[in-house]
Amino acid sequence: MFWTLWLACSKLYCTWYVAGKFHRGTMKLDITFGLPMLFLLDLFHDVSMFPDSVWDIPQQIVTLALLYDVWFYHGHRLLHTRWLKRIHSIHHNEPMHPSSGLYSHPLEYVLVFVGPALFLPWWLGYSWFVTWLWICGAVTNAAQAHTPGKTIHTLHHEWGNVNYGATELFDRLWGTFQPL
Question: What angle do CA 37, 32, 146 make, to 5 degrees?
């Protein structure tokens, strides 16, 4: 229970530190869905606080980044289909700001954003410390991608059919990458 609260507070702190403010809608999603998911994972996430070796940390973070990019890219592409576009429009209708990076429909929040970010470290049996590093990195990435100005992801918000991934990897692989 302690580690769940610690992780939740750290996620909120990372959001505030990077974005400079909290987004009311994202806060509601975090409290309504993120916290209960953390508590559920805490019940079943019987792992150590730290990894066995300090050298495991970079390998585990890279593994999480690759697996999350697979999940995020393909989930994000699905959200742009005619069946799910209405759900995803909640995110696209929000002005670009670092605090709005995770603002979305609850279904999108659970299945594409926060759900996989929490589920993957649990599924792989990674320590709480690696999970914490991963969540802070994911929040920072979402905030930076939604910073006003020209970024790869702002092109996605303008055009709608390019730059779906959390990184450029799958956009380049599937031909949806659009450079600045």
Answer: 90
Contacts of 137 (CB under 8 A, 6+ apart): 61, 65
- Per DSSP, helices labelled H in the chain are 2-19, 24-29, 35-44, 56-79, 85-92, 106-108, 114-124, 128-145, 152-159, 169-174
Q: Are 128 and 7 a contacting pair, CB within 8 Å?
A: yes
Measured N-to-C along each axis, helices 2-19 and 35-44 cross at an angle, to the nearest 10 degrees, of 140
pTM of the model: 0.80
CB 69 within 8 A of CB 165: yes
Q: Is the pLDDT of residue 113 over 90?
A: no
Q: Report the pLDDT averaged over residues 163-172.
A: 93
User: Among all chains, which residue has been given the structure tokens 């869905």?
Assistant: 33
pLDDT at 175 over 80: yes
Rounded-to-integer distance, Cα 124 and Cα 156, Å: 31
The residue assigned the tokens 């979305």 is: 104
Q: pLDDT tens digit string along 67-82?
A: 999 999 999 999 999 9
